Amino acid sequence: MVEEEDTEACSRKALEEDDESKGLCYCFWGPMYWFKMLAVEMHWSFLFGVVSVYGINQGFGGALARIGTEYYMKDVQKVQPSEAQVYAGITSVPWMIKPIWGLLTDVLPIMGYRRRPYFILSGLLGVVSMLLISLHSKLHLVFALLALTAGNTAVAVADVTVDACVAQNSITYPSRAADMQSLCASSYSVGGLLGFSISGVFVHLIGPKGVFGLLTVPAALVSLVGILLSEPQVSNFAYSEVNQKFLDAAKAMWTTLKCPDVWRPCLYMYLSFAVSLNINEGLFYWYTDSKDGPSFSKETVGYIFSMGAIGALLGAILYQNLLKDHHLRDMLFWTQLLFGLAGMLDLMLVQRMNLKFGIPDYLFVVIGEAISQMISRLKWMPLLVLSSKLCPSGIEGTFFALLMSIDNIGGLTSTWGGGLLLHLLNVTRTKFDNLWLAILIRNILRVSPLCLLFLVPRGDPNSFVLPTELLSSKEETETQEPDNLELVSLVNSVDGR
């Protein structure tokens, strides 16, 4: 009782601080008050899980992995740009099947626990796979792809549980849905900024394989989350009912997806990613190998991507403070249009137009990367908030994973489509004559989703509510089976000792 009163007092104090007049000092103290407010309302353990998985494992570790993989494929495996695009799609398959990981953690406890073993096992899988690449001197391409895929599996499994926490708390605290997405995006961007800032230096000093050795540290942190997590043990679990629970979850997801208010925005999210072709490998090879290009060093490439992380962070801050209440269609219209226009900076760079205006390559690329990442984040944030609102209670973790996998499949389509485009235009390790044409085609396709905006709901994403028939079915499901497929958040796990 005393503990509850203390919590309420802390919550009132945090809210009072949040409502104080916003002077110049608020620019510094404001984020701290905001972070404290979220910690009071949703428990520190929720924030710890978000920062650990999004900020350190995905943001920081993902930045190191991206630069390390780029140079590993280029310098160690010596593959063509179009091939590197295909291999990047293959290693990202674990993100396509996130609902499977969600269902496993929902309905299949290990030794009586639903969450802790999956955190611990995913961390161990990440450590082993990264050590394999790091320590093996001449690893065959097939085994390298398997190890990279295993590493992505480890990250995806850890990500599913935190996604479920965010989705569940978005329903419990609907007014804080945008704040939680901003927390996720900010953690990811800050981690990415730190990772990209040092990635090029480490690739230069210890090589790409050495970077994979460093990635064992973020993976080990995931296991630490599982060790520290206090979770009630499931007693007398009926493993014979696992198949039925899988079927029930699949049926519930299919029922939700059939609703026009759900499948229409899902279709838009997929198509908006799929048609925006990804030709990053062609640009990366041109940055580093072309005699007519800037020939950036490893350190410079890392710094460029770190500027992109700053742009993404600014996009998250801009959305949180100014744009989170704007109408969804208006936001998507302008961000999609600006996303296509920002791509023209790559075309100007490849055509060397920046030098005609006296702008150095490094400065021009840094500005272009920051702008593109900021616009991309602004485009992505309202879709994340909307996705959290589309999740029916009881299977919010699995369904949110399904929505994210739809987006990831769109990204896979974009990556393989971009690889095919580079192959058809004969863009190789040393030939970049048609790279400008690939960029132009990509930019035109980037604005094509503007014709599909009728698929997304009107109004701001925070006001979206699932249809009544889905809400009523949710209540029936929860009544019939209280220990349903809902992913227990870190908050519930800690407080339910």
TrEMBL record:
It comes from the Eukaryota. Keywords: Membrane, Transmembrane, Transmembrane helix, Transport. InterPro entries: BT1, FBT, MFS_trans_sf. The chain crosses the membrane at residues 42-65, 118-135, 141-162, 183-205, 211-229, 267-288, 300-319, 331-350. One of its GO terms (cellular component) is membrane. It is a multi-pass membrane protein. It holds the Pfam family BT1. Coiled coil: none annotated. It is found in: Membrane. PANTHER family: FOLATE-BIOPTERIN TRANSPORTER 1, CHLOROPLASTIC, FOLATE-BIOPTERIN TRANSPORTER 2-RELATED. Belongs to the major facilitator superfamily. Folate-biopterin transporter (TC 2.A.71) family. This is Probable folate-biopterin transporter 2. It comes from Herrania umbratica. The lineage of its organism: Eukaryota, Viridiplantae, Streptophyta, Embryophyta, Tracheophyta.
